[in-house]
């Protein structure tokens, strides 16, 4: 890896699925895996996948005689196919030649994927192939590939095959393969003119239509060549074979430029019409690449985190920002899509939207607030469905689903295949009602970063009120406890979904959920005092919230139950947690390594993870991740608990010893909560989180889609945690504690209509205000508040303890 590049210098078929995911190119509208253009999907090495942001379809499968419906992120027609052969011989494939040289390079600065291969075929012909590809950041519909093919020791006639392939299915995730997978029905494919083919396909259930048009041209010596072509057209496949004469040591260039339009696009008449009309207007590969590169450079100017002093962390951090911005970008704004947990990079978790937003939005809030609005609007538009879900479940307000897809209904699967045992087992993780706290928290955090009163007034407040109402009706007063409790839920730790021996799913009083419920209610009460009275009255009427409801909110926020372990100060993950058995960690770690999916392992051993004090990921510790100790103390005080910040380290130590880190999010949280008390351990956790996708530490999960929450989480650790960035009491606070490994750090943020440049070293911090139009802003550095005006620059000495 170098500053801006990830380079693979050897061909390794085993690594290919991982590389395909990591070399995915996208623009916030669609993404295509970094698969080789000459290969078809083969379930082992190659899996070309193209995914549309929010492009879902539902299919019904039969499992053990039962019908189950899943909504998947659709694998759309493959626009990549480009291959060659010596006329009449076998088509080129790396598996059939001797590879003499191989370099694959992902250039994140310009969003370009390059592959250089020198190889020898069975007839001793040596050839050099340089392939370049981009998905345009400048034009959300555009992608292109360019080939430069040089016969090094031979001359002769070759055939070049270019195609659009709609015969694809969803088969990227092995454990979903026994489920229905044919999401596309062919509509039409044909040749538009001499050098352009097109294909139209539609999803079987959601009736989402996509048109692709591909123009393939050949250049020789920089000049365009007219070459003989033959087309094969079937309803779901369009192909052209071009015949070209090659001379030894003379490169021929091939360009394939593709436009993709869908029936969800705006400012269009009809997808095929747009694709065919617009493709004629496009210039060549280099010109198109140049405008995409410029778009990327503009994005990087705003979004880069520069740390020239650490050349190991730097490129990985950039890779994380790169994949985040390929998943959601300015091209996403205005589209009805959420931010998927696994990017648009693969089929794991079916492109669904989870609480991972919580880890992703802080980066966007401080740079691309219009993008956060777009993603929050995804939630706002699904408020009616969440209201319906709440009522169906016997509550009021709005209850968002744990996994969300097209229309906001619950998309969690009800059974899942344990690949370790081959058994289908019930999946009750949908009981993670804490997703609702995350949605409200995200609205509030967006408001904190932007001070966007209009959004809060007209959209955000409604979401917060409805979620508060939900929490206030799921919380039930227990006469026995003299407090409110929330029963039958699952916390962030998905290993625990029921009590051992219990028939019914769900746990009582998950501490994280209960505290978050109180936080949301508090927040709703605060917002109701901030907005103008007439708007509050409107919203109370719209959401059917009465004064009695508000009184109940108050009461719940003061009398919520939080379990503790025995007489200690350690918060219990849920009521009854302490009765569980201790888990033999050493034995299992020795056998399975540090990061284990204990739920799968134990199920395959006919045991049950529910029996043990063993967490998949941070649960109680999420509280210390999301809130400062001051905020937490005041929330606990309000509830009538004397929680002391000094006890946080005990809580961390207790759960750290009982967590398997079966989710990549876990290490982010652990790194964060240790940042101030134990820098060394914080850094070790950070490093693991940082490398989780690049090194695929979970052994095979990254190839099914990157972990966007963990990627954004590591970036956020650098931007907020290590700089002590916090928005509190109308002040933007900094209290930097850069780890020893990060000696310098530079980035920009947008805070309440200002652009600020920030430069950190271990003993200095420089804040530079861009010239802007907003009023003065208060910035606090290590406890002292300063007033900044536009155009100002100030330097601060940083005290290190
Ligand atoms: C984690 C969840 C997360 C989901 C999607 C699961 O493995 O347990 O917390 O939301 O993955 O990233």
Automatic annotation (TrEMBL):
Sequence ranges assigned to domain Glycoside hydrolase family 65 N-terminal in this UniProt record: 7-264
Domain Glycoside hydrolase family 65 C-terminal, residue spans: 725-787
Alphabetized Pfam families for the sequence: Glyco_hydro_65C, Glyco_hydro_65m, Glyco_hydro_65N
Domain of life according to the entry: Bacteria
Keywords: Glycosyltransferase, Hydrolase, Transferase
Domain Glycoside hydrolase family 65 central catalytic residue range list: 318-715
GO molecular function: hydrolase activity
Family: Belongs to the glycosyl hydrolase 65 family.
Name of the protein this chain belongs to: Glycoside hydrolase family 65 protein
Source organism of this protein record: Pontibacter aydingkolensis
């Amino acid at each position: 890896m170098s500053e801006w590049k990830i380079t693979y210098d050897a061909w390794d078929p085993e690594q290919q699925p991982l590389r395909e995911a990591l070399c995915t190119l996208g623009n916030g509208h669609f993404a295509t895996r970094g698969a080789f253009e000459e290969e078809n999907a083969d379930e082992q090495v190659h899996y070309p996948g193209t995914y549309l942001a929010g492009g879902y379809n539902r299919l019904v499968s039969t499992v053990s005689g039962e019908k189950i419906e899943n909504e998947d992120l659709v694998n759309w027609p493959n626009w990549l196919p480009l291959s060659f052969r010596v006329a009449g011989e076998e088509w080129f494939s790396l598996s059939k030649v001797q590879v003499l040289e191989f370099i694959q390079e992902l250039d994140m600065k310009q969003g370009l994927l390059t592959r250089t291969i020198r190889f020898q075929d069975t007839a001793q012909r040596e050839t050099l192939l340089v392939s370049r590809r981009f998905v345009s950041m400048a034009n959300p519909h555009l992608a292109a590939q360019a080939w430069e093919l040089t016969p090094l020791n031979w001359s002769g006639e070759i055939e070049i095959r270019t195609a659009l392939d709609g015969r694809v299915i969803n088969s990227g995730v092995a454990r979903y393969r026994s489920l229905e997978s044919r999401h596309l029905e062919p509509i039409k494919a044909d040749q538009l003119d001499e050098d352009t083919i097109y294909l139209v396909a539609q999803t079987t259930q959601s009736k989402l239509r996509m048109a692709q048009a591909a123009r393939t041209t050949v250049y020789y010596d920089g000049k365009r060549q007219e070459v003989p072509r033959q087309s094969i057209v079937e309803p779901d496949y369009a192909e052209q074979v071009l015949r070209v004469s090659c001379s030894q040591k003379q490169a021929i260039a091939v360009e394939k430029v593709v436009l993709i339009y869908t029936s969800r696009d705006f400012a269009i008449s009809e997808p095929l019409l747009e694709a065919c009309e617009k493709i004629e207007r496009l210039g060549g590969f280099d010109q198109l690449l140049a405008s995409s590169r410029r778009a990327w450079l503009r994005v990087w100017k705003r979004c880069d985190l520069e740390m020239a002093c650490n050349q190991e962390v730097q490129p990985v951090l950039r890779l994380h920002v790169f994949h985040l911005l390929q998943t959601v970008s300015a091209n996403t704004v205005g589209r009805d899509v959420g931010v998927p947990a696994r990017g648009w990079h693969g089929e794991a978790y079916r492109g669904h939207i989870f609480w991972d937003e919580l880890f992703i939005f802080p980066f966007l809030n401080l740079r691309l607030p219009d993008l956060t609005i777009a993603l929050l609007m995804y939630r706002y538009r699904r408020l009616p469905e969440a209201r319906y879900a709440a009522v169906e479940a016997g509550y009021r307000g709005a209850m968002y689903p744990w996994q969300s897809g097209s229309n906001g209904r619950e998309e969690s699967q009800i059974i899942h295949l344990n690949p370790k045992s081959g058994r289908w087992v019930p999946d009750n993780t949908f009981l993670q009602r804490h997703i609702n706290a995350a949605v409200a928290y995200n609205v509030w955090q967006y408001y904190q970063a932007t001070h966007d009163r209009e959004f809060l007034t007209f959209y955000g407040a409604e979401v917060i009120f409805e979620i508060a109402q939900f929490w206030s009706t799921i919380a039930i007063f227990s006469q026995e406890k003299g407090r409110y409790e929330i029963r039958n839920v699952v916390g962030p730790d998905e290993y625990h979904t029921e009590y051992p021996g219990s028939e019914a799913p769900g746990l009582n009083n998950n501490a994280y959920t209960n505290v978050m419920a109180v936080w949301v209610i508090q927040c709703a009460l605060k917002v109701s005092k901030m907005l103008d009275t007439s708007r509050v009255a409107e919203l109370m009427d719209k959401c059917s919230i009465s004064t009695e409801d508000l009184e109940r909110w108050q009461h719940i926020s003061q009398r919520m139950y939080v379990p503790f372990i025995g007489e200690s100060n350690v918060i219990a993950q849920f009521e009854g947690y302490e009765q569980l058995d201790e888990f033999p960690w050493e034995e299992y770690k020795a056998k399975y390594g540090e990061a284990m999916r204990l739920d799968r392992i134990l199920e395959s051993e006919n045991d049950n993870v529910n029996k043990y004090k063993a967490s998949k990921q941070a649960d109680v510790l999420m509280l210390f991740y999301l809130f400062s100790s001051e905020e937490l103390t005041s929330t606990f005080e309000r509830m009538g608990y004397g929680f002391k910040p000094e006890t946080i380290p005990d809580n961390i130590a207790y759960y750290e010893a009982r967590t398997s880190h079966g989710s990549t999010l876990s290490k982010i949280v652990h790194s964060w909560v240790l940042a101030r008390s134990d820098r060394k351990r914080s850094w070790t956790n950070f490093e693991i989180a940082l490398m989780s996708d690049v090194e695929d530490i979970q052994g095979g999960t990254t190839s099914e889609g990157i972990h966007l929450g963990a990627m954004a989480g590591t970036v956020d650790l650098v931007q907020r945690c290590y700089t002590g960035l916090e928005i509190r009491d109308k002040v933007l606070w900094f209290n930097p504690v850069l780890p020893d490994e990060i000696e310098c750090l530079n980035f920009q943020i947008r805070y309440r209509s200002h652009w600020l440049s920030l430069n950190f070293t271990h003993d200095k911090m420089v804040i530079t205000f861009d010239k802007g139009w907003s009023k003065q802003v208060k910035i606090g550095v290590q406890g002292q508040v300063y007033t900044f005006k536009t155009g100002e620059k100030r330097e601060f000495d940083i005290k290190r303890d």
